[in-house]
Amino acid sequence: MSAEPSTSSELGDGEHLAVLGYEDSFNRSMTLWANFALGFTYLSPLVGVYSLFATALATGGPPSIWWIVIVGAGQFTVSLVFGEVVSQYPIHGGIYPWARRLWGRRYAWMAAWVYIWAMIVTITAVASYGSGFLASLFGLPATKEVTLGLTVLLLIVALALNFTGTKTLATVARIGLAAELVGVIAVGIYLLIFQRKQEFSVFFDSMGVQGNGSYLVAFLGAALAGLFLFYGFEACGDVAEEVANPAKRIPIAMMMTILVGGVSALFAFGGYVLAAPDLQKIVAGDDVDPIPEILQSSLGPVGAKIFLVVAVTAFLSCVLSLQAAASRLLFSFARDGMVPAHRWLAKVSPRSKVPVNALIVACSIPVIITLIVYVGPDGLITQVTAFAVLGIYVAFQSVVLASLRQRLRGWRPAGPFSLGGAGIVINAIALLYGIGAMILLAWPTSTGNAFNDWIVLIGLGIVVVAGGLYLLIARPDRKSDAPEGDAIRVAELLRAHRSGAGAPRD
């Protein structure tokens, strides 16, 4: 990797944006640390580990921890690809503008359509999981009514904070980062050192989860333990126009998100496994929510209550970051005239400099989905979450594929973050990893209920078909004249600006 001097290091951020065809209309108040905090709280290892700890152990046993390493390595290659793309295109919206500039309008429209729904569903799922911590903190029963009320409360509080502007978002993201680090790394290390009840060799012991079958099947079935964790780093790029020197800082923030998130998740997952007083009960599937008992027995009542405060803070920050990322994607989509009510969605508050209408949508639709989950059958939130993960991976790989296509056509990324000659190899590895991940996510389960077994693919199919029909009938791509498929031309243009800009400056 190299830091080749380019437009973003020689031209101002506004000038770089002008070369790409946009005006600089946001406050660039987000630092590298704040940008990393945004991505990290979106990725949220605390949320990921807590949500799937019991499921992972019951499916793949303690060795399921290795999925954190496998997926982390795979997603790191994806973050490198994204880093080169955002370094050339440091513009709001992430997935949508990247796919558009790398391929075209219709391709980008479908990628963004899938991603928008996946993000909105993810907001719903994270708020729902967070409501459990909030209920425990205040000693409320975990009824469907309490879950509904607290989920909506988390969504509205996050919306109110987002309304106040980028500085609040950055501040809460930093607080959330601190809460995450305390909740996963500090607690994980404490459990590993002082509360260890299992040997480290347990991470190589399947504890019989495979029954009479092959353990490989059981291990593959536990892949969601890692796949659910490692996305969110792209949110660093969703707010590119609110970051100072984004072409240099955002690639670094993305890589930091993966690395720190992976280490945090390993400490948390490993600490819970080694501190579990009855690990066999969890592996057998008889304890579906074991973490509260582990914390209660290891930290005591006061320590467990403090952890709940930390966890609620982390969940709120995660919802806040998700809403912010989704609203910027909607704004970017609307700014190019690609969605209904695009003028309304593209409005930016003159006071807070945030897309307030897009934020309202990013909150109101999750509230509606929460109501659907409330009146629906038990366990619906798990199925909703599974769809969200697959949808996000599909959107990610649309950018990875488009990037590889441009490289094969001769594109040499022109941002200050560059992989050099290794770019095409890393890009190909990222694509192969992503295809494998999507297969694992979409692979049907074997519960005997056809709808439940295929629900993930059914959900994705509904979104894709609905989006495809709208694209064919309404032709939103014809209503936009924003640039598309110009990666090679823009790279040449940026290099031309660099050569005529004089000596590089910091």
Summarize, please.
With 506 residues, the chain is mainly alpha-helical. It is built from 22 helices and two strands.
Overall, the morphology is: globular
Architecture (CATH level 2) name: Up-down Bundle
What is the spatial order of strands in the main beta sheet? 1-2
Distance between the termini: 19 Å
Number of spatially distinct domains? 1
Q: Over all CA atoms, what is the radius of gyration?
A: 22 Å
The CATH topology is given as Amino acid/polyamine transporter I
Largest sheet data: 2 strands, antiparallel
Q: What top-tier CATH class fits best?
A: Mainly Alpha
Number of helices: 22
* Helix proportion: over 70%
Entry keywords:
single chain; 506 residues; mainly alpha; Amino acid/polyamine transporter I; two-stranded antiparallel ribbon; 71% helix; 1% strand; globular; disordered C terminus; membrane; Amino acid transporter; transmembrane; transmembrane transporter activity
Structure, explained:
The protein is 71% helix and 1% strand. With 506 residues, it is mainly alpha-helical. It has helices at residues 7-10, 13-19, 32-43, 45-60, 66-88, 95-102, 105-137, 144-163, 166-194, 215-221, 224-227, 235-238, 246-275, 279-283, 291-335, 342-345, 356-375, 380-408, 423-442, 450-453, 455-474, 487-499, and strands at residues 2-3, 417-418. Helix 7 (105-137) packs antiparallel against helix 15 (291-335), helix 9 (166-194) runs parallel beside helix 13 and helix 9 runs antiparallel to helix 15 (291-335). It contains 22 helices and two strands.
